[in-house]
Design brief:
The protein folds into 2 domains: 4-218, Spore Coat Polysaccharide Biosynthesis Protein SpsA, Chain A, CATH 3.90.550.10; 219-330, no CATH class. Helices cover 50% and strands 16% of the residues. It is built from 14 helices and 9 strands.
Length: 331
Amino acid sequence: MPKVSVCIPTYNRAHYLVYAVESVLNQSYSDFELVICDDASTDNTQEIVSQWNDSRINYIRQAENVRRSRNMRSGFQVAKGDYFIKFDDDDALTPDFLEKTVEILDKNNEIDFVCTNHWIIDGKNERIESATQENSARWGKDKLKKGIIPDLMRQTFQYQSLQVGSTLFRRSCLQEIDYMRPEADGCEDFDLLVRLAIAGKKGYFLPEFLMEYRYHDGQTSLKQNLHFLQAKLFCINSYQFPDELEKVRLQKLAATQQDLGLRLIESGDTKTGRKLLQESTKILGNSSRTSLGWMLSYLPDNLRQLALEIFRKIRPQNYTDKVRQINKSKI
């Protein structure tokens, strides 16, 4: 039996999948299996996978599209390793990821998972140093010290400091909490880490950049964003925390209602969007974002889209926008 199971769920990203798979096959640690879960891709994914002649690869192709969480679960269900990692088909591991994280779990039986820091890469597989540092600071990874992570519920829920794709888990702890709830589809990584913290599991942070997370245009559609926010709303509604963190939960719930309301208004569902904005004001009060959303909801669709286009052109770019802009400039 392999010591580690690596799972890469994929859907119509054959052009990125090669880089992801090669990053696993080139690991300095070799006692692993690689499970590739293909969610009924319509591109040449099946042909690409067939080119690898490696007995450690287990290719699972869904008969029909079952969506992200169920596709991920299919890989987890066939995994044989004591340790487990899932990362997306557009990301990658550095060559010594498994060697360094396996060593920590082997030596510390009380630790349930090991999370590392990660690089930001662009569509051409190039590491962006400035974006990597900004990302680390934005999510508080630059403040985490090496060792057992203190106040795991706060780190996973409030700060969202950790990332599933850069984390090696004991498979047993994932089995205990029902790995990847289908109801959380689109927000399953966030949900998994929060539920591990609620269950009292122990995480360890290794402040080395041992994974590569990619930003590209394929992550930014309105449909994807709506799916994510709807799933996030479900997740936040399903948690209960001690008093102080419960206040944070209500704030985060309202902020998610606001975000989803604005995106629904953009999509044309103004009635539901207004309702969510109204709900969010009970906690957040009236804000310029809410006022903007209300105004946009009463504009004709063509004027609403024009106003949004102008707003996006004049707003300051953050590091994620800049990385995606790099991708466009290289095409």
